[in-house]
Amino acid sequence: MYDKLQKDGTKEDFGNVLKSKVIKYDIHNGEIEVDLYLPANVHTLSSLKDIPVRQYIPDMSFQTPNTNFIGSIEDYIPHMTWTASAKVHGRHFTTFDGQEYDFNGRCSYVLARDYVDGNFSIIMNYLGTQKKKLILTSHQQNVQLSPNGKVSVDGVVMDLPYRSSEFEVFSDDGYVIIEGRGFQVKSDPTVNMVDIYLSKWYFGKTRGLLGTLNHELYDDMIMPNKQITSDASALGYAWQVQDRC
């Protein structure tokens, strides 16, 4: 840079700038006096010639770091797949953790419920010998599957397929399938069979006749009062929806 100034004759002009000095500096009285040398011979400021300062500054380039290696946020969210299943085949129950027992009721019972966030409840209503109605509730809707395979939403019978912000209901190979937030119910009312699948997000968040979904068998027959029983009848009575049937 110094050599460039010397070649175009500007070196001497810039050297004069170093002679500039402050003569008076009285900030309280608002007086500032400066003896200023300009890098050019001028009689007025309006006649000051342009000084190409930019050509004396070396080029500097900046490279933005590549952050593509971070990837998308979706890469760090686990895919929601059905990881646990339970079933009611006739009077035989199998919980999400694999506990098995037999129970035959006469009322309405909670099969599974999200007791943390209340996203869903699955209730089985016994209507007599070998006849059961499934009732699924969410924050905003109620879906019922009758023994004859009819589906009603909030009391209105619906044709399949049906879809809303809360539920999706459709038939597939003789089964009626109801899906909601992280759960799926697959039922064949003609043979009195119900399979329930829950996503991994409900680990440790469920209660009901189908257990706790925590990979532990010992507490699958836990009652609402947090007492554990080995008596299927006592368990059923504890998860009964109505006091009387």
TrEMBL record:
Q: Which Pfam families match?
A: VWD
Q: Which PROSITE patterns does the entry mention?
A: VWFD
Lineage, highest ranks first: Eukaryota, Metazoa, Spiralia, Lophotrochozoa, Mollusca
- Where in the numbering of this chain does the VWFD domain appear? 83-245
Coiled coil location: none
Q: What is this protein called?
A: VWFD domain-containing protein
User: Do you know which InterPro entries this protein is assigned to?
Assistant: VWF_type-D
